[in-house]
Design a protein that fits this description.
about 600 residues; Rossmann fold; five-stranded parallel beta sheet; about 35% helix; elongated; binds thiamine diphosphate
Length: about 600
């Protein structure tokens, strides 16, 4: 006989995650979600950690998913607001191994500051939403969510509500899902969301939504259940359980996958019965979509739009409506498949992708970092351009502050220092401090490089707490990044990023060191330095066009006929002289050409 267990919805989700092969779980506590992670932390086969907040938790789970490990992240509904920045762009990047986000809503605000309906986020981000209605489904749907996540390359939202999370029910355990390994492969077009790549991914998201809707039409999660009364009810989650008990003879469209809505299944229910109601807790999420099909339905004029439902509330609310004369039968009008914008016409001019400025010291960091075999998790700022050719020095760009959490999750999932994080100084203050605290707290391995150019360059050289420069031009106290890191308890070195040898050595030392460390690569943004540092000259005899200097991606250097040419935009930062192995590039007037290798290849 099969062993039957008795789980709360939250326990069932945790057990369901392990059964589905998830090996990484993280989250931030909040009623009614908390026990999911608490349970996971007690189970074998899954690493569970509390994160510093929901944004960091999601970014950490994304890192683990990229590393090839199925990951689940848990939070209460308001937590999804905190995680919204990575969440919205994660829809575009998609995942590597499956990624499931559990958002537990609290209708009735038993212990919450508001009563929001997480399903709006599924629509907002164009990702699938699953809504289990009892403990068994909570357990089973986790595996369904992971499978959908990998098949459709999308994060999947799993919505719970207080009654499901805390109510208990029988669970029959299922055969564990056996997974093959998922290797990580760098894919800049997929994981680096600079506008060019994001536009391409966005089209895929819109197409994915249509495919998901087709799946919702045929999915066994969305069941048309025959009844004997001339009444149909559309319901999802725990609201389904209430409505089932209140109207046992009704037809039901039970939606396990409530977004995207299967329009044709809805229409089929309307062909079976003459009166249809939607029973849902909180917002008229399904109801509005059914009405948009032109189908008459009873919804929030009867069912309360706030608080929890139960079977009595549902019965008393719907009984008078469902015994009225049925509305006139109508044919549904399905919305058209949305058109996508035409690609812009070819400009007829050479394409000039954006590049880092000549003399930008971020370039030196990328040159130093890319000799090491670490997946470099990137962030948002001028330095995101380091992801593009020829540097190809960043693997990801999800949202501001995501790099450190993603690095931590990646390394935790693989159990070694396999990824580094690169983050600008303004971005560090924006949302890099919390994931650093988190990585330290959870003993994640990693190397964080803060590109401290003393400004918010990307948006036009604004001040930030690290510079002390205020919006009105006055000076306030400046926060010292190194002291801040050391205050957290993280090893940190500040180096002059314009001294390539020192920078390279500091990066190497941190790559080789155990645990978590930060290198602050300090050098002012070249746009704030009026003076040219020096004149670089090329020795045509020594240059053999090997291309090493061109690989640093400086727009002041170009491949000439017989040797590299230097444009007037050169700032004389000298990085090219450091990487040239033949001493072909040097500062004018310097004795002995170049710095590195007489006689080098
Ligand atoms: C949530 C959010 N707020 C604001 C922005 C706009 N933005 C993009 S990068 C950036 C700051 C970059 O500064 P920094 O990290 O110092 O890097 P830099 O450009 O100086 O290299 C800002 C404000 C954004 N992309 N996301």
């Amino acid at each position: 006989m099969e062993r039957t267990l008795f789980f709360s919805g939250n326990e069932a989700i945790a057990h369901g995650a392990v059964r589905a092969g998830a090996a990484f779980a993280c989250g931030y506590p909040g009623t009614p979600s908390t026990e999911i992670l608490q349970t996971a932390a007690r189970l074998d086969g899954i690493h569970a950690e509390w994160c510093v907040n929901e944004k960091v938790a999601l970014e950490t789970a994304v890192g683990a998913s990229l590393a090839g490990v199925r990951s689940i992240v848990t939070m209460k509904h308001v937590g999804l607001n905190v995680a919204a920045d990575p969440f919205m762009t994660l829809s575009l990047t998609g995942v590597n191994a499956g990624l499931v986000i559990v958002s537990a809503d609290d209708p009735g605000m038993h212990s919450s500051q508001n009563e929001q309906d997480s399903r709006a986020y599924a629509k907002f981000a164009k990702v699938p939403m699953l809504e289990p209605s009892d403990s068994q489904e909570a357990y089973d749907f986790v595996a369904e969510a992971f499978a959908l996540s990998e098949e459709f390359d999308t994060p999947v939202l799993l919505r719970s509500t207080t009654r499901l999370s805390h109510g208990r029910g029988q669970v029959i355990p299922r055969v564990p899902v056996v997974l093959g390994p998922r290797d990580y492969a760098r894919d800049i077009g997929k994981y680096v969301m600079v506008p060019h790549y994001a536009r391409m991914r966005n089209r895929l998201v819109l197409e994915r939504l249509q495919k998901l809707r087709a799946r919702a039409e045929e999915s066994p999660l969305n069941v048309l259940e025959a009844g004997t009364a001339d009444v149909g009810i559309i319901a999802a989650g725990v609201a389904y359980a209430y409505a089932r008990e209140a109207f046992p003879k009704a037809w039901f469209l039970k939606l396990g996958m409530s977004h995207p809505l299967p329009y044709r299944k809805v229409a089929r229910l309307f062909r079976q019965v003459s009166r249809v109601a939607v029973v849902e807790e909180l917002d008229p999420f399904i109801e509005e979509q059914v009405r948009a099909l032109g189908l008459p339905v009873v919804g929030k004029e009867a069912i309360p739009a706030d608080g929890e439902l139960d079977q009595d509330i549902v019965f008393r609310a719907l009984e008078p409506f469902l015994s009225r004369r049925p509305p006139r039968r109508r044919r549904p009008v399905f919305p058209p498949v949305p058109r996508l914008a035409d690609p812009p016409p070819a400009p007829g001019l050479p394409v000039r992708p954006p590049v880092l400025c000549p003399g930008c010291t971020h370039r030196a960091v990328f040159t130093a970092l890319r000799t090491h075999r670490l997946a470099p998790m990137g962030d948002i700022g001028c330095y995101t351009l380091g992801a593009l050719p020829p540097l190809l020095a960043l693997d990801s760009c999800l949202c501001m502050g995501a790099s450190i959490g993603m690095m931590a999750g990646f390394n935790q999932a693989l159990g070694r220092k396999a990824a580094a994080a690169v983050i600008g100084d303004s971005t560090f203050f924006h949302s890099g401090v919390t994931p650093l605290i988190d990585a330290h707290y959870n003993a994640a391995d990693g190397l964080v490089i803060v590109l401290d150019n003393r400004t918010t360059a990307m948006t036009g050289l604004q001040g930030h707490p690290g510079t002390g420069l205020r919006a009105d031009g006055s000076r306030g106290p400046a926060v010292d990044i190194q002291k801040l890191c050391e205050g957290i308890g993280v090893r940190c070195h500040t180096v002059d990023a314009s001294d390539y040898g020192v920078l390279e050595a500091a990066v190497k030392a941190e790559v080789d060191a155990p645990g978590l460390g930060v290198v602050v690569a300090l050098a002012p943004c070249v746009l704030m330095v009026p003076e040219k540092a020096g004149e670089i000259v090329i020795d045509d005899e020594r240059c053999n066009l090997c291309g090493l200097c061109l690989d640093v991606g400086c727009p002041a250097l170009a491949r000439g006929e017989d040797s590299v040419s230097i444009a007037g935009s050169c700032t004389g930062c000298g990085l090219c002289t450091e990487v040239c192995r033949r001493g072909a590039l040097s500062f004018a007037g310097a004795t002995g050409a170049g710095t590195a290798g007489e006689g080098a290849p």
